[in-house]
Known about the structure:
The protein is an alpha/beta fold. It is 43% helix and 19% strand. The chain has 16 helices and 16 strands.
Amino acid sequence: MARFAFSVDARDGKARTGRIAMQRGEIRTPAFMPVGTAATVKAMKPETVRATGADIILGNTYHLMLRPGAERIARLGGLHAFMNWDRPILTDSGGYQVMSLSDLRKLTEQGVEFRSHIDGSKHMLTPERSMEVQRLLGSDIVMAFDECPRADRPRSEIAASMDLSMRWAKRSRDAFDAGEEHAECAALFGIQQGALDEELRRQSAEQLIDIGFDGYAVGGLAVGEGQEAMFATLDFAPAMLPEDRPRYLMGVGKPDDLVGAVERGIDMFDCVLPTRSGRNGQAFTWAGPLNLRNARHAEDTAPLDDRCNCDVCGTYSRAYLHHLTKAGEMLGAMLLTEHNLSFYQQLMAAMRDAIGRQRFAAFASDFRSDYLC
């Protein structure tokens, strides 16, 4: 099988469905990647994550380099063997996490010096070190190292940050290529920056294309700007990226965010929302989110969602899940997380089917009518 090959099977407007072929398996697009921050998708066994329909998961460079350490994971056979996941893994670069440590980090041209949130130890993360860590983890899709400023920063700061990220993108490309053995079986994605500014997004895309990547991410969104502003940016940003490469919207999002982003040409997503919400008593359904802490569920024998085909909906009542949530039982978090991830994968499958049948506009309209009622 090819190291990395992306093909588009069908288009419907800007929406498209296809597949990414990699050595560890095929990824159907549009794809949602459950987040496995610390070598685990929280409250889930890897085989259960796969059973929900996930083709790929995401690992976190920052957290794994701090604990248990990338070198240790490499000695133990790599991240796939370590966590018992034999399909593709995408690892983020660590840039977003270290940028969020505003009181614990120092940014320079070289990279980011920061103190661990775990024990206060000092570390330096550069494009070269990020590529090294992702190589040690054995990542299938490696993300270039970047800076991610908030969209509400002054334009001059966003422009300077974007320029720095593009210089780091080139260094990431060079460092990735230098690891020849890993580069022969992995892919490298560049990250478009520029916040909500169309011209800065264009400049970023042009520089990334000049460097050359296997795929391209739209970064710098879902950082507080709101859905309307995010969609306005997605009206132009994806089209600036190559048609023949996958487009990945980082850190998104709610179910209606996913539908709107696919509508605008996005192929890949990741977000902690389905797992975090499951641990906090929230379930996503085709009729909108449910708060299982609400007393109205206490004697409700209905499933979470009668349109969902997951094991949770086929086995447990809202009343039981309400009880588990109110009692703080860990089984409640496990079951709601399983349902949420299953729902997200069913949503992705429904979008792929609608695009293939040239009915995506009708699907999106019906979805919004039911979900946002």
